[in-house]
Amino acid sequence: MLKLNVREIESAGHLEQTVSVPAEKHRIEMPDDFQMDGPLAVEWKADAFDDEVMVTGTAGTEVVTHCARCLADYRFHLQVRFEDHVPLTEPQVDLIEEIRQALLLALPMKPLCRGECAGLCPHCGKNLNTEKCGCKSGEIDPRFDKLKNLKLDR
Ligand SMILES: [Zn+2]
Ligand SMILES: [Zn+2]
User: How far apart are CA 86 and CA 97, in angstroms?
Assistant: First the structure.
């Protein structure tokens, strides 16, 4: 589906297509923490020049991963652009490698479920996006508690 025939592009001069490629057809592997969920939506345009074919396009897919701050699973849309040049002497253009590299480069280094993810409470471990906990963020150092008691004892 993502292998384009160079002869066809050459004789047409220009070709374009929108395709939805199911996972079992593209076989793009994501790194451990990421999972592609759903088909790969690809839009490409191919133009023939004197000595080469140029293909440009976009590819998008849904990705599931977990948040680096609160550890919850979340899904996001990954959208990339790609470009490929192939000499007219080649029989075909295989877009999958260009798309694979573009997708991998676009993955976030530190995925966050939302920009302002509150993360987990450092004291009790609750997910602060979904629940409140009784812990005070600026908890009093226990050593000061003793001092306070000393004062009261006097
Ligand atoms: Zn989060
Ligand atoms: Zn807490």
Answer: 13
Cα distances from 13 to residues 50, 57, 107, 123, 138, in angstroms, run 10, 17, 34, 64, 67
| CA of 84 relative to ligand 1 center, distance in Å | 36
Ligand 2 center to 132 CA (angstroms): 7
Tokens of 50: 């004197």
Q: How many CB atoms lie within 10 A of CB 18?
A: 10
| Residue indicated by tokens 């790969």 | 40
Task: Tell me the pLDDT tens digit for each residue of 19-76.
Answer: 999 988 888 989 999 999 999 999 999 999 999 999 999 999 999 999 999 999 999 9
**Inter-residue contact 113 to 70 (CB < 8 Å):** yes
Q: Say if pTM beats, i.e. exceeds, 0.90.
A: no
Which ranges in the chain belong to alpha helices (H)?
6-12, 23-26, 96-106, 142-153
Interval between CA 16 and ligand 1 midpoint (Å): 39
Domain boundaries, the chain: 3-116, 118-154
